[in-house]
Amino acid sequence: MKILVTGGTVFVSRYTAEYFVKKGHDVYVLNRNTRPQSEGVNLINCDRHNLGNRLKNIYFDMIIDVTAYNEADIKDFLNALGNFGQYIMISSSAVYPETNPQPFTENQDCGFNIHWEDYGTNKINAEKYLLTKLPDAYIIRPPYLYGRMNNLYRETFVFECAEKNMPFFIPKDGKMKLQFFDVEDLCIFIEKIIESKPKNHIFNAGNPETVTIEEWVKLCYVVLGKVPEIRYVTSEINQRLYFPFRNYEYILDVTKQMEIMPDVKSLETGLQQSYEWYKDNRELIVRKDYLQYINNNLV
User: Is the pTM of this model over 0.70?
Assistant: First the structure.
């Protein structure tokens, strides 16, 4: 297939582009060429809002839109495209209001989420515009994505704490649940959608099992063969000062995903792969001041 991936230089979009190159497809990436490009991709060096006629005469069998964050992103991009086959947008679980009953299902109403603010509502508007113009498009709503090429300071933060033999500071009692989806599984799920062409066009996607904060931290330490010394932060400190996730617990119902893709990668395996990538790519991580805050305020 001839595939267009928006982005292509960071985490999800980069992994997606390289995944489909390895599968033997003709992969194009759309970005402004401000970062190194992956081997084997065809670069379209342009902003998605200023494409002109660059894409009008190129037919793509599949478009994987990883970098659409609002209605304008979709509108300008669609106006610039010529003919194409299937369109898949990577959206977010942030489209569900925190007040909805959990686990969130695809047929629930979307709306403002106090924890995600404009990010969630912008994704909602992008989804709505896309489906208005392309009713046959597919939308995937993952929880926290992780795995190889993750440059966000999440599991890599825990890995660094483990490497330094530091205690790990956990918000409250550590029982808040997290749900994850490995970036490779996301790509496999995209393949499954293309193969099966399901009638449903909106999918939650993620591991069916959740883990608590404490369980997740321990799994990260296990990757390095270590056991963390857990310290609980019971004071009302904003946990984003020392911990990489919001104070927000949610669960997605992924029944429809599992009907198409019954097997997903274990969190243990995904974290091991993430660490192996991180060891050779430490300079790519976008770090935050968690360690400085911990050393100045919690140790």
Answer: yes
